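Fig. S4 source data, part A: sequence.
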Amino acid sequence: MSSRLGPLDVECDAPTYTVVRACRELGLRSPEDVCWRRMGHFNRRWLALTTLFGGRAGRDASCSCGHPLPALETCNFVFRSGKSQSYMIGQCGRCHTVYWEES
């Protein structure tokens, strides 16, 4: 039966694993084991859903668990190569989903 199935499209909304793993050092709870949502993608989905269901777009955006979205803080990561990258990162206090965006 598996021979009839094609390849699966996997959508990963997290930054590189190096960044995810390093977030434990920043105090994030279980960063390797929780959902990651890029704010740009999350905002587009929220806008589409609120428009579809007649709500006011962009108003009262909250985490999928219903908790308010976390405040995002700027974190700068320096890699072994010497390259650095800044991200805005925050974690939901209830379900521990991590919200992020490149800054």
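Fig. S4 source data, part B ends here. The mean pLDDT is 86.
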